[in-house]
Structures are given as structure tokens and as C-alpha cells.
């Protein structure tokens, strides 16, 4: 958790998020780290465990412009990006921006849309811009996608293409609340009704310096050696179809820097890399059995790679 006075707004953000998303402090911290590292977040879990609430909460607390898209099987790319309409008064075409033109985009149940529609977000997530009808338009700064998806075993879902998955810096799961958190939830009648009353702890102009400071956290040569050994181990592990890419390695370092920053440290420790590795790697590593890597696969990977 942040400890220095210059990080106190982040402490407030995490504390306020924990009051809404009960018993999931690790997940809320990972979500904040993802945004600090200028990444996009994928939340996969069963319906009703708080995925959408977490996205709303982070956007409100950070004071960022928020937009939500409910993905469905009949959605088209234009429903996300926007469309040009003919303005009869002026005799020309006028572009109507889609909901993607915001700072935090909640792509709710993204895997209920077809791959063609899912791919409409690729350029936005990678380049911070969209190209429609031959014209490229920049998106607001900062721009984050927080996507939720239901388990692929559920009816009406389409698996995310590998190129789409790789655009998400982190993938997290919320899971069921523990007994005490669920009891508090039952006694209070839920947490969604608290969202309108949440006050922003930051704004876009305040968040940018924190991003810059997180990116500047020192990573020693020894730490980079350790990170590289982890990445290289995934490429030689026979259980995995393929290992982590260079982009995934950069994502791991960025997330570890953000995790160290939220702890109030000025340098990255191996423990920071280990803390974020499951969220960085699980959706990028496929087992020969056809499944994604699970938490035990990542723990085994960490045990197999020494610190020196």
C-alpha cells in the first residue's frame, strides 16, 4: 500500500475501492496498477461477482470520463467506433463518435460479441486512436479499456482471439466473497447503489504524474536478469504451447513497477514481479491440453526459477 504523502491519493483510491468491492483488496490493487502502467484490464469470472462494479468504481474514483458498452452477438464495429451521417442542413457528412471516445471504456461481457466486433478495439487499445472511413481520430488521454468476460463454457460466448488477449496488460478474477464480506454485503443490500455517491479522489491531470512516477521506478540489472529468466523459462516449458512474448515481458516489468510504486518503494523487488506474474501471464500461456495456465502453473514456474 502507498505510504508516502505524495502517494496518499492512491491510498485513498484503494481504501475507497475496498469499501465497495468487499474482500478483494489484491484485485483492486492490481486494477489500479494496470491503469498506472497504462495498460488495459480483463476481468473474467461468473456473472454477479462484481466485475462491472469494479470498473465503475475505478473510473469514478480516478475522476475519468466513463462509458459502458454492453456487448451482444448482433453488435457491429460501428456501434463502438461511431458512424458518419449525412447532415442535410449543411450538405455534408458528419461523424458521430461512438462510446469508445472516452477515458475509461467498460467493455461489458466482451466475449458475447463476434470476433469481428471484438477486433474493433484492437487499434484503440494499441495505438490510442481509431480509424474509420479512411480517417484516423485520436482518443482522449488517458484511455483505458476495462473488459469483463464470462467463462467460455457459458452459452453465447465467443473466445477472444490471441491478438486481442495480448492487448490486455492484466487479467484478474474476483471469485466468490469470503463469509464475512458476503454477510456485510447481505446486511447492506449490495454496493452498486453507493456508486453515485463516490467522490473522485483524482482527475486525469492528477493521474498522469503518478503514471510517470510509476514508470520511473528503478529496476536493477539483477532484477531484469530474474525477470528474463522467468520469461525464458516459459519458452522452454514443455507444458506450454508457446512462451511469453517480448511484449509480455515489457508488460510484466511495467506491472511490477506499478506494484512497487503502490507499495511506496523506489525500486522493483523480485516479490513485485512474483505478485503480478499470474495476472500478466495466465491469459498469455496456453497448455498443451488446450487450457490457459492456472495459478498452480504460475507458482510452479516461480519455484523453478531461482533468484540468482
From TrEMBL:
InterPro entries: AAA+_ATPase, ATPase_AAA-3, CbbQ/NirQ/NorQ/GpvN, ChlI/MoxR_AAA_lid, P-loop_NTPase
Domain AAA+ ATPase: 37-178
Gene3D superfamilies the UniProt entry points to: Magnesium chelatase subunit I, C-Terminal domain (1.10.8.80), P-loop containing nucleotide triphosphate hydrolases (3.40.50.300)
Pfam family, one: AAA_3
Source organism, top-level taxon: Bacteria
Family designation: Belongs to the MoxR family.
Name used for this protein in its record: AAA+ ATPase domain-containing protein
Lineage: Bacteria, Pseudomonadati, Pseudomonadota, Betaproteobacteria, Candidatus Accumulibacter
Amino acid at each position: 500500500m502507498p505510504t508516502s504523502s505524495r502517494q496518499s491519493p492512491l491510498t485513498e483510491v484503494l481504501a475507497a475501492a475496498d469499501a465497495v468491492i468487499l474482500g478483494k483488496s489484491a484485485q483492486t490493487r492490481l486494477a489500479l496498477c494496470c491503469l498506472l502502467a497504462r495498460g488495459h484490464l480483463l476481468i473474467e469470472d461468473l456473472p454477479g461477482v462484481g466485475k462491472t462494479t469494479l470498473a465503475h468504481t475505478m473510473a469514478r474514483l480516478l475522476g475519468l470520463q466513463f462509458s459502458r458498452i454492453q456487448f451482444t452477438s448482433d453488435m457491429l464495429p460501428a456501434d463502438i467506433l461511431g458512424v458518419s451521417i449525412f447532415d442535410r442542413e449543411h450538405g455534408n457528412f458528419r461523424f458521430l463518435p461512438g462510446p469508445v471516445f472516452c477515458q475509461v471504456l467498460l467493455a461489458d461481457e466482451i466475449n458475447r460479441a463476434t470476433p469481428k466486433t471484438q477486433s474493433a478495439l484492437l487499434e484503440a487499445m494499441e495505438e490510442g486512436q481509431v480509424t474509420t472511413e479512411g480517417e484516423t481520430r485520436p482518443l482522449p488521454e488517458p484511455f483505458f479499456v476495462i473488459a469483463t468476460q464470462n467463462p467460455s463454457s457459458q452459452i453465447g460466448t465467443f473466445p477472444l482471439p490471441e491478438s486481442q488477449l495480448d492487448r490486455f496488460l492484466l487479467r484478474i478474477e474476483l471469485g466468490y466473497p469470503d463469509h464475512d464480506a458476503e454477510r456485510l454485503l447481505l446486511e447492506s443490500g449490495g454496493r452498486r447503489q453507493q456508486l453515485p455517491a463516490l467522490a473522485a479522489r483524482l482527475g486525469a491531470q492528477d493521474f498522469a504524474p503518478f503514471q510517470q512516477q510509476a514508470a520511473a521506478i528503478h529496476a536493477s540489472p539483477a532484477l531484469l536478469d530474474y525477470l528474463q529468466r522467468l520469461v525464458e523459462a516459459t519458452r522452454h516449458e514443455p507444458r506450454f504451447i508457446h512462451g511469453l512474448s517480448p511484449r509480455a515481458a515489457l508488460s510484466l516489468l511495467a506491472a511490477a513497477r506499478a506494484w512497487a510504486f503502490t507499495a511506496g518503494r523506489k525500486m522493483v523487488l523480485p516479490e513485485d514481479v512474483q505478485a503480478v506474474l499470474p495476472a500478466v501471464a495466465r491469459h498469455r500461456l496456453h497448455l498443451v491440453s488446450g487450457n490457459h495456465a492456472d495459478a498452480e502453473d504460475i507458482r510452479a514456474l516461480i519455484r523453478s526459477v531461482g533468484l540468482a
